[in-house]
Design a protein that fits this description.
Alpha-Beta Plaits, homodimer, Maf protein, 401 residues, globular, four-stranded mixed β-sheet, 42% helix
């Protein structure tokens, strides 16, 4: 509530739940004080079949959610041997003594299901609640760190949902397009989808850095067929401008494509500063197709590692078509890869001129066929510029094959 | 509520309000249906002196917040001539006819203050509400797009706060530590801070990849002094383990330090795959100190660009002390930088052995003084592994100077 941490749980959990066919009606954040937490959970249980809390399960003094909720529901907290063994093993594997404070994490409300934490110490908890509704409600408590919450949701909460809330029918599909503006995306697809909208399909659009998502949703008995029909029409409209579905990221799609084709990649990054390499290496198995990259943030680095000619830099400047070309060819030759991508541009905020404004970027793609350069003007803040440029480069590579 | 858009309003507004000394007690997101919106606003007015809504003020059919709130408060909506003039001017400046449906944006609840929209059409609205509390409450409605909301908050809401809620004193300071676990951080600092806690200081802890934040807050007349005293004690306890304050990121702190010292940096990244370079190049001005990096994701790249010896790779493997050392020395020589950092490790999920488990990483720092290598065991998922290792490398560089 101090605004020092961005709440990404809302988006992540809402998306996962929507993809699984569940409708989220409300998200609440409160300060970690007893009164506020209990009040928020009480209000949520009055409205929803499933309430998920995040955070407040750790070992420090402000981690009070477990105690507050047990108290509110009138459940005793009892030490759990499985959790203790798990936490002792966690620290043993790291050759560190178990801090005494972690003992509080072994306490579990009576009657709760325990989700052992594959990436941390505090377990998740799922408590069946009977408030007189016809159906048992569930209160699920998950740890706050995303690296703990996310795998736990997938491995432990999803099976619980499938068992307890299987009677939901709500279908959602997102198709991720790139290279087309948000208004134009809507203009292109709204007409063809109109007959399905009349039968209950809902369409949403979301502009993201370098991409526009088209979201198709429907509820009721005909939902699956309706969304499937909508997906086919959307694919026909956009063709190769669709790079992925649902939460697929472009890096992942590119790596999987290259793995399938058994083709290798090298990078020569200037203005993206390593972000393309970072996106590629986020994907397990990337080392089989990614030979490496050079972040050539200086003239000397461009010359030394990529063989960019001093005359090209002197005559055309680092942000130029010819330098992009030489960088890509140089990277492909030096790493001996099938493909090489280079980017050189002005991320800003400083350094622009009328002839070469901030946001100018040249991307080159070298392959066995030769080298091609494209120019873009990405007028954004520095971080969004890097994101947009990275998406452009990877989408080009994806469609080049 | 489908999780397709990240909610950044919460963080932005909470931070601004906290910096201005106001305590935010709750943040709620609901679907844009009439019942859910009215219920959320009614509950908020029951608890808070100031309620801010965002979004739903535009011209399309799903923009219903203005009407719903006027209805709920029993206020008539009346056309406002200033708003109409503003919107007509907005379109005239762009040589576009004013769309008829923008007329709804000129409707203002009786008695509301109007905030003209400097970057869009829909005005913000501030309605004084008397629910029988001793003090007038305010309901402030802001447009949803961040580029409209943010300037409007600064130019219109801040003066309202200063006029109506001047009697707040609330102070917050975050100190960012690294290299120490969350439990241990609390064990170290809770005792020394206890006398201040008894005088009203509140302490919070937040674990992030590679860092633990200690947050000190206080309200009332003595808040500034109390938080300042707490900050000094925390600094004494953790010394160089504190790398930044409030929202400072490690990349930013490192770049500013190197700029001040006029020292240059080069990188040789294997398992972090470009993430260290990405963090460095996120900072405007990085090009003055960052000469570049090699993402050496293959043996050949390590040998060719960094001069790692084939024997070292054959005898010790890519993830070894000697290869880390040769990578750092090679990068420093090749780029001609003052400092060079190298990282080589096993990000996983595959590829570990009992002798070299997933999570093993060697970081080397080369400088005029020579080269030093440190070994870490970062047992996390792949993405967190990259984050934690990046923080370790940058914190070491920061403290090495």
């Amino acid at each position: 509530m101090l605004g020092r941490v961005l709440n990404t749980h809302q988006q992540w959990l809402c998306r996962r739940l929507a993809d699984l066919g569940h409708v989220v009606t409300r998200q609440v954040a409160v300060a970690d004080t007893g009164h506020a937490i209990q009040e928020a959970v009480r209000e949520a249980l009055a409205h929803a079949d499933l309430v998920i809390t995040t955070g407040g399960l750790g070992p420090t003094s402000d981690d009070i959610t477990r105690e507050l909720i047990a108290e509110m529901l009138g459940k005793k907290l009892v030490p759990n041997a499985d959790v203790l063994a798990h936490i002792e093993n966690f620290f043993a594997k790291r050759n560190r003594p178990r801090p005494e404070r972690t003992s509080v994490e072994t306490l579990v409300p009576e009657g709760a299901l325990v989700f052992l934490n594959a990436t941390g110490t505090a377990p998740g908890l799922a408590i069946p609640v009977n408030t007189g509704k016809s159906k048992t409600q569930w209160l699920v408590m998950l740890p706050g760190p995303p690296r703990e919450l996310r795998p736990m949701f997938d491995t432990s909460v999803v099976p619980l949902l499938q068992r307890e809330f299987a009677d939901e029918i709500f279908v959602c599909r997102t198709l991720r397009t790139t290279g087309i503006g948000e208004s134009r995306v809507q203009e292109m697809v709204a007409g063809p989808l109109q007959p399905l909208v009349e039968r209950g399909l809902e369409i949403g659009y979301c502009a993201r850095p370098g991409a526009v998502d088209v979201r198709l949703t429907a509820g009721g008995d005909t939902a699956t067929g309706l969304v499937k029909e909508g997906e086919l029409i959307t694919q026909q409209v956009f063709g190769p401008a669709i790079f992925g579905r649902d939460d697929e990221e472009i890096g992942q799609v590119v790596v999987h494509r290259l793995l399938k084709l058994k083709k290798t990649l090298a990078l020569a990054e200037s203005c993206t500063g390593g972000l393309i390499a970072d996106r590629i290496t986020d994907v397990p198995g990337a080392s089989e197709i990614f030979l490496g990259g050079v972040v050539s943030y200086s003239h000397a680095a461009k010359q030394k590692f990529l063989g960019v000619r001093a005359e090209s830099l002197a005559e055309h400047g680092a942000v130029s078509e010819i330098v992009a070309q030489e960088m890509a060819l140089g990277a492909r030759a030096a790493f001996g890869s099938d493909y090489a991508i280079s980017v050189t541009g002005l991320a800003g905020p400083g350094g622009g001129t009328p002839a070469l404004p901030v946001g100018t970027v040249f991307i080159a793609l070298a392959s066995a066929k030769g080298v091609e350069v494209r120019k873009f003007l990405n007028v954004w803040d520095r971080l969004t510029f890097k994101e947009v440029t990275t998406t452009q480069a990877l989408v080009w590579l994806l469609n080049a094959q």
